[in-house]
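Narrative of activities, Objective 1.

The group set out to show that a structural description can be obtained from nothing but a protein's sequence at a throughput compatible with the screening campaign. Below is one input-output pair from the validation batch, recorded exactly as produced.
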Amino acid sequence: MPLSLVPHSSGDITVLHCSGRIVAGPEIDVLRKHINSLLPGCRYILLDLEKITFIDSMGMGELVHMLTSARRCGGDLKLCNISASTVRVLRVTNLHKVFEITETEEHGLNSFRSSKIGHA
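Output recorded for this entry:
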């Protein structure tokens, strides 16, 4: 299943609803190009991974790269609505300590808003 991305904005936060797989090849290329087109204009990105069926090691690496890119621009990238299998992979790789993960899109948006208030 090819990767599909549906963006929408909530203030200065872009929510990117992802569906399909985040794997080596065209899927990662699509995600990378989309995130690169958002940065640095939109520094706050929430990836909704509810409809992601699989992420391989290259996909995990790309997520880390995108997080680093967002932080270099003075922003952040957070994850929400992730599946139990993705949580397991994040825990096994210790990446659950790198990403902020929220249960819902609303929690993710609130997390961005409260962290920006703390830095204002």
